Amino acid sequence: MSQSLTEFSLEEIKQATNNFGESNLIGYGSFGPVYLGLIRDRILAIKRMPDSLHRRFMAMVTKLSKIRHCNLVNLFGYCCETGHQMLIYEYLANGNMQDHLYDSIDLNFKKRIYIALGAAKGLQHLHSLNPPLTHNRFKMSKVLLDADFNAKVSGLSRLLEMRKEEANVYDPVVGLDNQETFNETSDVYSFGLFLLELITGEEPKPLTSNDEMIQWLGPRICSDRFVDQKMNGTFTREALNSVVKIMLKCLKFPAIERPKMEEVVTELEKIYNNDFTGEEEGSTKFSLGSELFTIYE
């Protein structure tokens, strides 16, 4: 393995989770329950996996050990004993971004851009691997936050376990053109939906064409009801315009016209590093109506 991982015994895991007790259950992943455990003076997230061939499980562990980045949820260790296979991850104290978006009142514009930038860097790293990896199911709940609100993209074990036939099914939620298979552009589309949800504070519907995009976004983008009111007073119109521009590009059809994640990261870095510490006087409306039609010409 390219990165040293810790192998934990089943007994250690049982002790850490109170024998997989209800009080230690913190959620459910794609494959099963996830438990919180204190192991060797470190708080970790323990993901129980369905029993599979030892060789297949260890192959996944090896692959996951090679995918490491500060904006990805990194594998810390594993447990593999008869009938018990578990992936042990770093624990992210602030949970997932979806919960914060809808429950937190302290999520200003700058903090949202910081989180979006971190998530974009995580996806960019996946796309930069050789061969490239695509997340395929990126969304708000897949972005986890550590104690300092650094964003880390989760869901990589699901990516590696996904069957080939499942990975190539047309799905409007990830912005595939009809008959197209998953590639980096589907992640870019999903990130565009992520930005849209981040700005509006509401979960967007899948938008499957440029015409549908214009019909849904047009009236909202030129009104007072486009931006999440919890952000009011924390941004300038110029900063907001810049975010919306890159968002529109990410959501564009055909998929080949979408930007690379590298470009998205560059644009978000510019926005984050600019001064947008106060809202300009007047309405929160912003003039992107004409640009909406220009981008989708």
UniProtKB/TrEMBL annotation:
Name the InterPro entries for this protein. Kinase-like_dom_sf, PERK1-13-like, Prot_kinase_dom, Ser-Thr/Tyr_kinase_cat_dom
Q: What is its EC number?
A: 2.7.11.1
Gene Ontology cellular-component terms for this entry are:
plasma membrane
Broad class of the protein's primary localization: membrane
**In what residue span(s) does the Protein kinase domain sit?**
20-277
Location in or out of the cell: Cell membrane
Give the PROSITE patterns listed for this entry. PROTEIN_KINASE_DOM
UniProt keywords, alphabetically: ATP-binding, Cell membrane, Kinase, Membrane, Nucleotide-binding, Serine/threonine-protein kinase, Transferase, Transmembrane, Transmembrane helix
- How does it sit in the bilayer? Single-pass membrane protein
Q: Does the keyword Membrane apply?
A: yes
MF terms per GO, please?
A: ATP binding; protein serine/threonine kinase activity
Reactions accelerated catalytically: L-threonyl-[protein] + ATP = O-phospho-L-threonyl-[protein] + ADP + H(+); L-seryl-[protein] + ATP = O-phospho-L-seryl-[protein] + ADP + H(+)
Q: Which Gene3D superfamilies does its entry note?
A: Phosphorylase Kinase, domain 1, Transferase(Phosphotransferase) domain 1
Q: Which SUPFAM superfamilies match?
A: Protein kinase-like (PK-like) (SSF56112)
Task: Write the protein's name.
Answer: non-specific serine/threonine protein kinase
